[in-house]
Amino acid sequence: MNQPNINKPGSLGDAFGTSAAGLGGLLPPNRPPAPPPPPVEDASSTAGETAEATPSTRRRAPSADTSRLGTEDDTFPVNVYLLPAAITEASRRRRSRRVDNYELVVDAIDSLRDELPALVARRQSGPGRREDSLFPPRRGASTTASAARDGRRRLWAFQATEAETAVLDKLVDDVGARSRSELVSCALEAFLLPRRRR
Q1: CA-CA-CA-CA dihedral for 58, 62, 63, 65, to nearest 10
Q2: What share of the chain is helix, strand, coil (3-state, %, to 5)?
Q3: Sorting pLDDT into bands at 50, 70 and 90, what band is 84?
Q4: Measured in whole angstroms, how far is the alpha carbon of residue 66 from the centre of its chain?
Q5: How far apart are CA 160 and CA 76, in angstroms?
Q6: Measuring CA to CA, which of 44, 95, 143, 164 is 20 to 30 A from 36?
Q7: Helix (H) or strand (E) segment spanning residue 78
Q8: What is the C-alpha to C-alpha distance for residues 23 and 21, in angstroms, rounded to an integer?
């Protein structure tokens, strides 16, 4: 059998025989890619200024490109890690009250607004120390330590608008949470599983 020259332009039928003869011309011709647009110079970068990222700007879910946004009512997913028992209770309440996950989040945060700093601090604290200890309790327990103490959390999500995520980001900063997930998780677990409020 004669080997086709695959480097020579031709039809598929020439390269692969009669079984592929009808495939010739189905694909568009190979064109080189368009050149990239020229870079846009930013006035702040030419002045030598660099913008420092704040915690709230790092957590923004919506894209900075507002030309693709439809309306201010567009929602974005907000991921939260919850204990399996809290997810089960959230599903039960959502069905019985006929509400969505966002409504549960709002109810939890609104009802526990004054307790949020303490709930977040308790989540972040390390192993407790005796009251007469010379050493303060450690902050910043790792997620592995939290999982060993409380159980492994699972992914759960709700939809929020850009304005609603801005409120969550402000609350994250105000109560000292590490993320939106930690803030919402602390509120929801205390709201849905009251025995965890202690």
Answers
A1: -120
A2: 50, 10, 40
A3: very high
A4: 19
A5: 5
A6: 44
A7: strand 75-82
A8: 6
pLDDT of residue 56: 44
pLDDT confidence tier of residue 141, bands split at 50, 70 and 90: low
- The residue with tokens 């991921």 is 79
Kind and range of the H or E element at 85? Answer: helix 84-97
Q: Which amino acid is at 65?
A: D
Token pair belonging to 112: 């526990």
Please tell me the pTM assigned to this model: 0.56
Give the model's pLDDT for residue 87. 94
Give the span between the Cα atoms of 185 and 86, in whole angstroms: 9
CA dist., res. 176 & res. 159, Å (int)? 23
50 has pLDDT over 60? no
Question: What mean pLDDT value characterizes the chain?
Answer: 76
- The pLDDT assigned to 90 comes to 95
Lookup result for tokens 């989540």 = 123
Burial class (CB in 10 A: 0-12, 13-18, 19+), 158: buried
Contacts of 117 (CB under 8 A, 6+ apart): 174, 175, 176
SS3 of 92-149: the string is: HHHHHHCCCHHHHHHHHHHHCHHHHHHHHHHHHECCCCCCCCCCCCCECCCHHHHHHH
